[in-house]
Specification:
The chain is of the alpha/beta class and 256 residues long. Helices cover 40% and strands 22% of the residues.
Length: 256
């Protein structure tokens, strides 16, 4: 069995898919399987995936029954995963070659089951322009205030924690997963090294403020069971200040 199962959802991403897959193949740590779940792409994504899979038996190609969003696609990958650890990489992001090796060493040293890393925001050409450093040790209460964790940096130990799945939401499903894992273990530990590039898509739904607010309230009400009043109070007094501070830091950095 592979040590690490890497879950990669994809949808109509023929432009950047090769970059992401190549970054997995370039890992110094090689005991992995890559489960790529195509969410009913309508471009040439599937043909590209078949070409890659023909070259390496560690590739596992899967498909959703219908277009369902990245959360459903990732859950299909998690279900089929055989590794002790489960890691995530989106089909437009990019890992540095030492990513897996560094994270596994970090988790062994810390004796932890849930970890992520620092990361860089990058443009469409993967040119980094801002390094982000999440808080170094996060518990459930801290995570309720907001998600500053980059999904491609996360690894959790499925052997110790069991397989934990994302809530079936179109948005915020990764944050929902972190909250679920933190109900099984005390902390998310952050490796203090930049290990991946997050390619910022200017059309991403996370940049639509109205949809972002809806996603946050949905997590509070339907994942955590907050009343509508409590959900809005937590959003206004805990989530918003932290999110605003993160935005200001990035804006000031870009103005330098």
């Amino acid at each position: 069995m592979p040590t690490v199962s890497i879950i990669m959802p994809c949808f109509n991403n023929e432009l950047h898919l090769n970059d992401s897959i190549s970054s997995v193949l370039n890992q110094t740590y090689t005991d992995w399987e890559l489960l790529i779940v195509d969410d009913c792409s309508t471009d040439t994504t599937w043909q590209l995936l078949e070409q890659w899979a023909a070259k390496d038996e560690r590739f596992k190609l899967l498909r959703t029954a219908q277009n369902s969003g990245s959360g459903v696609a990732r859950n299909i990958g998690i279900e089929k995963a055989q590794g002790q650890y489960i890691a995530f990489l989106d089909s437009d992001d990019w890992w540095y070659p030492l990513k897996l090796e560094t994270m596994l060493q970090f988790m062994t040293q810390r004796q932890c089951d849930f970890a992520c890393s620092w990361y860089e925001y990058a443009d469409s050409e993967l040119k980094p322009y801002y390094a982000y450093r999440p808080h170094d040790k996060q518990d459930f209460r801290y995570m309720v205030s907001g998600n500053d964790v980059g999904t491609p940096g996360v690894i959790y130990n499925a052997q110790n924690l069991g397989k934990v799945y994302m809530p079936n939401f179109r948005r915020g499903q990764d944050w929902g997963l972190w909250l679920r894992i933190l109900q099984k273990t005390d902390y998310l530990y952050v490796c203090p090294k930049i290990l991946f590039k997050y390619r910022l898509n200017t059309q991403s739904v996370t940049r639509n403020k109205r949809r972002m607010i809806e996603a946050v309230i949905n997590i509070y009400e339907n994942e955590l069971g907050f009343s509508p009043l409590k959900a809005w109070l937590v959003f206004v007094f805990r989530f918003t200040p932290r999110s605003f501070a993160k935005l200001i830091r990035r804006h000031l950095h870009q103005q330098r």
